[in-house]
Each structure stands twice: as structure tokens, then as C-alpha cells.
Amino acid sequence: MTVGNESLDPRRIAIVPIAGLNATKMLLQYQASMLRMWANNCELAAHNFDRGLETFRSVTEQRQRDAA
Predict the structure, then answer these.
(1) Does position 53 have pLDDT exceeding 80, yes or no?
(2) How far is it, in rounded angstroms, from Cα 60 to Cα 66?
(3) Nearest-CA neighbor of 49 among 57, 60, 37?
(4) What is the Cα–Cα distance from 53 to 15, expressed in whole angstroms?
(5) What is the pLDDT at residue 41?
(6) Which of 26, 39, 43, 66 has the lowest CB atom count within 10 Å?
(7) How far apart are CA 47 and CA 43, in angstroms?
(8) CA pseudo-torsion sign 33, 39, 40, 45
(9) Are 40 and 32 contacting, i.e. CB atoms less than 8 angstroms apart?
């Protein structure tokens, strides 16, 4: 083969989309892991908020009982 025909080699042409798909797959895996981490942080924040709300309720109820 000559140098000019190497660019039309079917094996080389097939490698380009495969490389692009591999890069896309890695990007999607990264985005999915970031989304999982974000969802985990949201759940943790909701849990902490709920725990704080329960503490606030119990303190408020205790003060009302003490005042009565």
C-alpha cells in the first residue's frame, strides 16, 4: 500500500468511531458517578434536616410542657 491509500484503509476507518465511543463511555460513567454522589449528598442533607427538625420539635414541646 502506498501512503495515500493508508487513510482509506477500512481498519483505520473503523478505529475512529470506536475511539469516540470509548471516550463517550468514559464521560458518561463520570457523569453518572457525579450524579450518584450528588443524589447521596441530597439524601444526607434531607436526613440531617429531618433530624434537626425532630430536635427542634422536641425542644419546643418540652418548653410548652414546662410553661404549662
Answers:
(1) yes
(2) 10
(3) 57
(4) 57
(5) 98
(6) 66
(7) 6
(8) positive
(9) no
